[in-house]
Amino acid sequence: MAGAATAIGILAVTATLAVGCAAAGAAAIRSAQVSAAADGAALAAADAAMGAVPGAPCEQATRVAALGGVELVACDIDGVVATVETAAPVGVSRVHARARAGPPP
Description:
- This protein is of the alpha+beta class.
- 57% of the residues lie in helices and 26% in strands.
- It has a three-stranded antiparallel beta sheet.
């Protein structure tokens, strides 16, 4: 009987660790996706601010963020420099990313 209880305990601990590692991996992947979407949205907004593409900069950023499956939380245009923040849910929390794009100083 003691061996069965030990085996069940080891299996429970192993399962708990596996679930935790899977959740951490999923959060890391989603974080990279949100960051990539923020980069694309910032580039799109900067292109619109410079006149390279038609449309309002923040509208372009919103469109690109939506294509990446994330929400555009903030969009700030300073001349031709765009700063955006995106977010997406991961489990019970949210992942945020911020990106800035524009010509070099």
